[in-house]
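agent> step 3/5: call structure_predict on target 'MaoC family dehydratase' (Sinomonas cellulolyticus).
agent> reason: downstream docking stage needs a structural representation; sequence fetched in step 2, passing through unchanged.
tool.input:
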Amino acid sequence: MTTRVTEPRLTVDFDKLLTMAGADLGTTDWMEITQDRVNLFADATDDHQWIHTDPERAKEGPFGAPIAHGFLTLSLVIPFWGELFDVEGVTTKVNYGLDKVRFTSPVKVGSKVRMAATIAEVTEVKGGAQIKVNATIEIEGQERPAVVAEFLARFYK
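tool.output (status=ok):
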């Protein structure tokens, strides 16, 4: 499995962050979902359901192929986020949580996914700022996305 090391497409300072509500951050590069990645996630989460980890049986299953775990697809928000955006001039950056998540379409092994993101809200909090990001993980060649989520991040000065 290849590790994606990339500089964020947009880096802003903290003061600029406070003005970014509504900013469209664009999309990431495509990432292929491999069986190796799915198997590693299954090992990490102890979720070895056959629709994810048994390619031969999964061919006969409801999706016609093995699929990525929904939470695997959701976890890609982290590397995708790092590809799109960063904030300088802060001491701490944390994932604060999720307000809404929907797994709207399965991701078959071999598919490529990417994330589109918009900063929906910026709120000042004690010592920093919180942002709400509307994130959509798209599947190449499909109209319906894999994941639609609102995630929260905090940046402390």
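agent> step 4/5: record observation. The chain has a mean pLDDT of 95.
agent> proceeding.
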